[in-house]
Specification:
This protein is α/β, with parallel strands linked by helices. It has six helices and six strands. It is 34% helix and 20% strand. Strand 5 and strand 6 form a beta hairpin.
């Protein structure tokens, strides 16, 4: 059985505007981020896919985004959908970080997560959701830019990575999960605003 998983990045936040590393720390949606989520809500009113269940990272910015897109819709908050932990770099200016190609294990000595740990955590969370809820065929999850991008890179070919790279605010990636062999695949990137 194949499950469809749609993972969307939260709206713009104060730290996004300030150029600060967010990770497990949190900052509120900006007015622009709120408006982005409201525009995304309009997109989903016409989206041909209907979701069986809704999930969000425990970060306030992700929960607020979900609540603006799907008001009055029950959802579960899951720590497994959180952003990468950047250790002591949390809340610091982003210019202190190395270029993306050098970040694979960069944050580990500083109390953060590697890309392998991050993608494993996300995949384990998605598999657990699907194993525990056999009736869920199509999931909607609000997560974070580095989290979604890292997961996509861990299950994609080089040409797919080039095609799907760059997860902006309210960009969504469609994944499929084959429950027979637990194979996760990135299918497409969808702009919702």
């Amino acid at each position: 059985m194949i499950r469809d998983i749609y993972m969307i990045r939260h709206g713009e936040t104060l730290f996004n505007v300030q150029g600060r590393t967010q990770g497990w720390s949190d900052s509120p949606l900006t007015l622009n981020g709120i408006n982005q989520a409201k525009r995304s809500k309009t997109f989903f009113e016409n989206f041909p896919v209907k979701f069986d269940a809704y999930f969000s990272s425990t970060s306030e910015r992700a929960c607020d985004t979900l609540e603006l897109i799907f008001p009055d819709t029950p959802y579960r908050q899951l720590k497994g959908l959180k952003e990468q932990n950047f250790g002591v770099y949390e809340g610091q200016p982003q210019y202190l970080e190395p270029v993306i190609s050098k970040r694979r294990d960069f944050f580990v000595p500083f109390g953060g997560e590697s890309w392998v740990r991050l993608s494993s955590r996300l995949k384990e969370t998605l598999i657990t959701i699907c194993q525990d809820n056999e009736t869920y065929r199509t999931l909607f999850c609000v997560s974070h830019g580095a989290a979604i991008s890292t997961l996509m890179k861990s299950v994609s070919s080089a040409s797919q990575i080039e095609q799907l790279h760059g997860i902006g605010n309210l960009d969504m990636l469609h994944f499929t999960l084959d429950m027979e062999n637990m194979e996760l695949k990135a299918i497409e990137k969808i702009s919702t605003i």
